[in-house]
Amino acid sequence: MIKPLLCASTVVLFAIAAVSFAGPMAQESTPAAAPGVKNPIKSTPQSRAHAKEIYDVDCALCHGTNGDGKTDLAKAMGLTLGDWTDAKTLAARPDAELFKTIRNGKGKMPSEAEGRAKDHDVWSLVVYIRSLASKEGSAAAPATAN
């Protein structure tokens, strides 16, 4: 009686292990690193609100709740982060480049891995980050600027 139970348990454990090591499931993704890729997310109150939820959890600790990059953690890590409240900071950076930086990380900045955020979420973050330079909360530079 114990042998069949042990065998069944072993099979279940191996199945669980195989699924967990297989990595995240593939998702439809936009070739974000390609030059000229347009941001599919429009800057709306809803898209910015969705991205703000993600930003507050994943980005604000280093970049600041207002995006100025002047946080105690950034200072403690020896980082000088761009001030996203100034539209000039991101003016020369296309959305595809911002997407790639968020998705892959940069230096000490961790990636927003595919298993953690869908492409839609990362594109929304780009819209939200651009909106930080605007007093009204709408994008100072067009969200699709490339």
Structure description:
With 146 residues, this protein is an all-alpha fold. It has a domain at 32-131: Cytochrome Bc1 Complex, Chain D, domain 2. Helices cover 45% and strands 0% of the residues. The protein contains 6 helices and no strands. Helix 2 crosses helix 6. It is globular, with a radius of gyration of 20 Å. Mean pLDDT is 79; it is low at 5-33 and 136-146.
Helix/strand layout:
Blueprint: H1 2-21, H2 45-58, H3 60-63, H4 72-76, H5 95-104, H6 119-131
Helix pairs in contact: 2-6, 5-6
List keywords for this structure.
146 residues; mainly alpha; Cytochrome Bc1 Complex, Chain D, domain 2; disordered C terminus
Strand content: under 5%
CATH top level label of the domain at 32-131: Mainly Alpha
**Biggest beta sheet attributes:** none
Rg, rounded, reads 20 Å
Q: Percentage of helical residues?
A: 40-55%
CATH superfamily of the domain at 32-131: Cytochrome c-like domain
End-to-end separation in angstroms reads 66 Å
Number of contiguous helices: 6
By secondary-structure content and strand pairing, the structural class works out as mainly alpha
Q: Report the strand count.
A: 0
- Average of the residue pLDDT scores: 79
Instruction: Flag low-confidence runs.
Output: 5-33, 136-146
SSE ordering: HHHHHH
CATH topology (fold) name of the domain at 32-131: Cytochrome Bc1 Complex, Chain D, domain 2
Shape: globular
Question: What's the short version?
Answer:
Helix content is about 45%, strand content about 0%. It contains six helices and no strands.
